[in-house]
Description:
The complex is a heterodimer.
Chain A: H1 22-27, H2 36-40, H3 51-60, H4 63-68, H5 80-84, H6 91-105, H7 112-127, H8 132-143, H9 148-161, H10 179-191
Helix pairs in contact in A: 7-8
Chain B: E1 2-5, H1 16-28, E2 32-35, H2 46-50, H3 52-69, E3 74-77, H4 80-95, H5 97-108, E4 120-122, H6 123-138, E5 148-151, H7 173-179, E6 183-184, H8 203-216, E7 222-225, H9 228-236, H10 238-245, E8 252-255, H11 256-263, H12 268-271, H13 281-293
Parallel strand pairs in B: 1-2, 1-3, 3-4, 5-6, 5-7, 7-8
Protein name (chain B): CoB--CoM heterodisulfide reductase
GO molecular function (chain B): CoB--CoM heterodisulfide reductase activity
EC number (chain B): 1.8.98.1
Amino acid sequence: MNEQSSGATTAHGGSAAAGPLDPIAEKVSACMQCGTCTGSCANAFAMDYTPRQLWRLVQLGEQDEIFRSTTFWMCSSCYYCTLRCPRGLPLTETIQALKRIAFARGTYRSKTSPVFYSTFVDNIRRYGRVREMDMMTRFFLRLKHPVAPLRFASLGVKLLRKGKISPQMPALFAKGKLDGLFRKVRELESES
Amino acid sequence: MKYLYYPGCSLEGTASEYDASVRAVMHSLGAELAEIEDWTCCGASAGDAISYLLSLALPARNLAIAGKQSPRSDVLVPCNACYLNLKRVDDHMNRSTDIREKINVVLAEENLRYGGGIKVRHLLDVLVRDFGPESIAANVKNKLSGMRIVPYYGCQFARPYSDADDPQFPVSMEPLIRALGAEVYPWTMGAKCCGAGLMTTKSEVALKLVANLLNGASEADCILTICPMCQMNLDSQQNKASRLLGKDMSKSVLYVTQLMGIAFGLSDEELMLKKNLAVTAGFQTKLRSASSRA
């Protein structure tokens, strides 16, 4: 992670010990609550807290409320908020950082997004490239949600019929192609 | 002209027609593509949601190989998400020497090193800037006259890195469409997000964005895309979008290189037109009448 711990205090003025939210709070400390991010966000309609409200929660250090929120899982990384923020804050990057913290803490209301991201990344480790069919199969298995695959069934059939996805056997016992690279990343991240 | 080619994972699977048409059209234009040897996934938007360092090390691995393979060639990328991820590496390495060092410690695992400076280019940028409408027009055998085409850029083509086009109202596809003899259908949604990043995890949210875009393009003959995520999302959700809006939302959604290939007189097989989920009857009739005029 490149964010250096700032040791910043929360907006409460409290002297909270350095926490994972500090670098994020520092990034949005200049937010003046104008709401341009919310007005620009394609997915704000589906969020519990709007982006502007989320930044306020971050400024206030309301950790529990932040990680109970669905807002950052609804971000589709279109960078429109970042483009239009009059304070020039890196909002999309900050949302991604919140996803990482939520993932590391294991606190999220719905497991769909974290399970998808981690299955995706695991596929990269195994094969170097994402094998769409293998990835989706593993995703549904890990989701343990019997109805979820049905929502994708008609699309899956269409794609198979068009020859757009090739059914591949998963390599169960093979060595992962990027094992070494992934191990090194984990090693460096646990040091910092 | 010679380029290092980074297809990205989708172009090996659900977007194989994009890969085929990119290769065919670039060949017609006289460009040489050398695929980056043993390239691996760029991490898409999942990598960054799991690990910041990983999200940079993955694309850096590809750039390091590219540098060894052909140090002076630009890397050509047809996918918006891959383009952003590969381009992002230099930006973030320049922001922090700490991250620059860490990336190289990771790459050392594979005996690679990336010093920066490889130029990452989106396919559209290469088509427009390196070839240009004149040389594209010179290859046109079937003018696509009478066709109204909606240029759809998606978000990550010009955001956050806007050196290829205007990040809010991109225009670079317009001269290209006109060079093919077609009309540009005017709209303002070219850089609006289609929600592809949420297609698997929050599909009901993505569907609303798709329906909105299809609705905005309802009077056009075809939506032209430059990203496998956008194409898949706009192409595959049309039945659901039709049910959501209570009207027919069928629309042909082609890759920029497929439409160019049609105008260049390349065969349907070369362009893999059969792989698109939706190529409407109306669009095919117009295509036939365009080629019979030629």
